[in-house]
Amino acid sequence: MSKLPSLKNLSYLLALHQHQNFNRAAQACNVSQSTLSSGIQNLEEQLGCQLIERDHKSFLFTGMGEEVVEQARRILTSTEELLYFAQSQGKIMEGPLRLGCIPTIAPFLVGPLTKQLQVDHPKLQLNIREDTTDNLLHLLRNGELDVLVLALPVDLQGNQSYVLGRDPFKLVMHQSMADNLHEPVQYNQLPDNSIFLLEKEHCLTGHAVAACELADSTKINPFTATSLHSLVQMADARLGATFIPQMAIDRGILNGTDLVALQPTGQQASREIGLVYRPTTNRRQTFRRLAEFIAQLLPEPLLK
Amino acid sequence: MSKLPSLKNLSYLLALHQHQNFNRAAQACNVSQSTLSSGIQNLEEQLGCQLIERDHKSFLFTGMGEEVVEQARRILTSTEELLYFAQSQGKIMEGPLRLGCIPTIAPFLVGPLTKQLQVDHPKLQLNIREDTTDNLLHLLRNGELDVLVLALPVDLQGNQSYVLGRDPFKLVMHQSMADNLHEPVQYNQLPDNSIFLLEKEHCLTGHAVAACELADSTKINPFTATSLHSLVQMADARLGATFIPQMAIDRGILNGTDLVALQPTGQQASREIGLVYRPTTNRRQTFRRLAEFIAQLLPEPLLK
DNA sequence: AACCTTAATTAGTATTTCCGATTATAGTAA
DNA sequence: TTACTATAATCGGAAATACTAATTAAGGTT
Q: Are the Cβ atoms of A47 and B90 closer than 8 angstroms?
């Protein structure tokens, strides 16, 4: 069996990939340029393949180089996790925790969550990143995030999850439009093109359409919004109706508007919120505890 | 950030865990006992915690030590995979492949599979281990196996899978017992205690009972067998009936007996066969290809 | 009591890693 | 053209590390 590549050299490769420049990468690693350079060469020799194509002045990662970077990132992440886990003696709810959250949850969760955690677990350093489901799953996979808060169902791509609770959808529209409607609202009472949704990148769109049984797409306005706050503004301007999760309403997203929230059609007109983590994690206990915290902040907690 | 533990020291720890003896572990690593000893101490210092409890004469892994071993195993496995992946230039269907298979599939799959692979992919070194679903999943998780052939559904514990096909169950009994039965066989026509099954460790038992809608447990004989071949022997001795998968019948498990295979009750009286692998693998292409090979050998292939 | 086995320790050696300086190459500005 | 800048590779020596053999210490066995 040939010798394993060293973690140090793998980290050099990652830095080089990130900075795309030997000097800056070396600086980031606190080593000299020559050290990093020979580290990479060493790695190429051990792996028996070319990782970067050089042309005296510059370089480019090969396909294999990119692949190796991906895997090296996972290996280094696991090792860092092991180090942290051991150093903290397996204590839960301590140290840095990088949490990813989708944009239709984050603004309504982050505030109360951080406040609560600061009181109960001051040693936990919560670091939050807001992005789409797909991007977050990628970052989780690569070890750039530790745990995600997503709306389910979603293809977990081999990750594991705790179900935290449900978040009902409400059909939100201007007071003046709601006068002659009965709950749950039948969509055929609404004019065509009168329902506004988020861009398709947001999983909320699909979840809302499915959960609220909005099969009739002629009701959906092709113009999409980029945030719940935009949707609220559009509805308040009497452009039409929209779906807003209860969570956002509880946090006062409708305050100062003339909007009303009505019950939409749908057996279970709600989305499920889950906490997602790598199956190889060593921080399950922390995640479990975190899950309980977050569940408490949901309209319909299912945990604990 | 403190320094990462070296892979070398982690491998020393693994060896020590495996051999439970410094000298033998050192030998296995091709280093001296003192090297290994100080390597472990080094590791403990870096991780800032005790991994083994020593009492001048012997030692014992601490709880944390066991945890670290588990994770170290994963890290080393990933790194070895990276090394192999790079060295083989990402070529598929080459090199060693450690496949785990459950006992109710292995005897009927391994023969034709290895024969076929030797012809089409002679550079693939197939290494097969037969064990129960639970044990195989554990070995997969720990990197001691690369890929599993299991009967589904089963809790994949975060692993991923390809569905390969279906394998129908047949109700097998002695000719003389089958005379006045109609297919699909109604179980109430059978005497009590007349159906023999495998030990509960075998997932086939549960799958067969569910798929063939055998709710009436008074029909099940409490005496269990340890292999399909035993079941066949018992049925041939007119002790009763049993469920045998089509795959085994196709491979001639009933040859030389006076048994007949009847269609049991059940909408879809069959089990699903799947190929299971770690979500972090870098050999998806190989597994995909292997999946196609195995699917061809199933009674009802679903792949390709 | 003598001997064996165990893991830790020590001191010296070998190896590896790293740095600083230099080189080679290409692009850019005067 | 001629400097000047920026890039990555190379080289020689210094520092750090890893390794070994021999020894020690302690418990168990004969």
A: no
